[in-house]
Every structure is written in structure tokens, then in C-alpha cells.
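Inverse folding, one chain.
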């Protein structure tokens, strides 16, 4: 890519589809998770993420796994590694801030990581729905690394929670 002239880069960029249509299922999943319901008078929208996140421990895990599916879809649409990293960062912010009781849940309802990642996917994709491919091995390895880091954060917080609860229970004489 470094050997391409400026004109070749412009020509290549102009051939890329602009706002492409992504899979209907992916779009529906993102909307259900982030903006399915509306508070009538206020007009605020929230999705299943906000409801599921209220379940301690399980909620953050379940909603993060759904967000990882949207991230993995980025490989099939051939988005750049920088875009994949941004999508992973959206999920990480969602997960980390979501760990704060109540305030994190309110933030999660506002942040809407699936819709953010869907917008990135639409803006940065290099192919259309019909031309979807399996993706390059290097892209899958990169997303695998991002997912491994995010899952490491997830399991790390679960383990930390377990140890804190165990420590507290032992010192209160419950165990």
C-alpha cells in the first residue's frame, strides 16, 4: 500500500461502497440490544442490554458476548484492523464502566455499543452484503486477540468478584 500513488489511493477509495447495507439479522440484533424500547414522554430509547445488565454478574457477561458477535462480523465485511480495534474499544468501555453499580447501568443504556459498532461497520466496510467473504486469516487472528483480551477482562473481574466475596464471607464468619 505504501507504493501506491495518491491518485491510486483516491481511485481505490472511490471504488469502496459508501454506506452499505449490513445483514438484516445483525441490524435487528443491535437494535433489540440497544434501542428496542422507548420511554414515552421522555423519548429515551433503551434495549435488552439495559435490562439484562441489571442481573449481577450474568448480565454483563451475556451482553458482552452479544457485542463480541457484532465485532466478529466486522471481519466478514473486511473492515480495517483500526476499525476492528475501535469496535473492541467500544466494547471494553461498555464493559469496564458497566462494572460500576447503578451508574454503570445508566451509562450502558446511553453508550449503546452494538449500535456504535454497527455504524462503524456501515461506514468502514469494504464489501457489500452479497460479496461477504470468510475474511482473511490475519483479520481473524487480530479479532481473536481482541476477544481474548476482552474475555480476559471478563473472567478477571469474575474471579476478582469471587475472591472479594469469599474474603468478605470468611471475615464475617459466614464460611
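Residues assigned per position:
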Amino acid at each position: 500500500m505504501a507504493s501506491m500513488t495518491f491518485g491510486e489511493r483516491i481511485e481505490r477509495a472511490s471504488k469502496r461502497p459508501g454506506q452499505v447495507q449490513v445483514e438484516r439479522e445483525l441490524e435487528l440484533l443491535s437494535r433489540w440490544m440497544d434501542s428496542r424500547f422507548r420511554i414515552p414522554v421522555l423519548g429515551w430509547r433503551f434495549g435488552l442490554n439495559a435490562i439484562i445488565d441489571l442481573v449481577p454478574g450474568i448480565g454483563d457477561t451475556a451482553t458482552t458476548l452479544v457485542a463480541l458477535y457484532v465485532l466478529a462480523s466486522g471481519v466478514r465485511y473486511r473492515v480495517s484492523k483500526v476499525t476492528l480495534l475501535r469496535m473492541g474499544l467500544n466494547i471494553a468501555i461498555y464493559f469496564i464502566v458497566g462494572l460500576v453499580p447503578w451508574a454503570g447501568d445508566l451509562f450502558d443504556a446511553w453508550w449503546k455499543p452494538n449500535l456504535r459498532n454497527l455504524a462503524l461497520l456501515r461506514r468502514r466496510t469494504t464489501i457489500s452484503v452479497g460479496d461477504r467473504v470468510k475474511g482473511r486469516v490475519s483479520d481473524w487472528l487480530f479479532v481473536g486477540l481482541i476477544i481474548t483480551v476482552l474475555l480476559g477482562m471478563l473472567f478477571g473481574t469474575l474471579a476478582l468478584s469471587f475472591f472479594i466475596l469469599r474474603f468478605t464471607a470468611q471475615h464475617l464468619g459466614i464460611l
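Helices lie at 6-15, 24-34, 48-52, 58-76, 81-98, 103-111, 113-124, 137-171. The first helix runs from residue 6 to 15.
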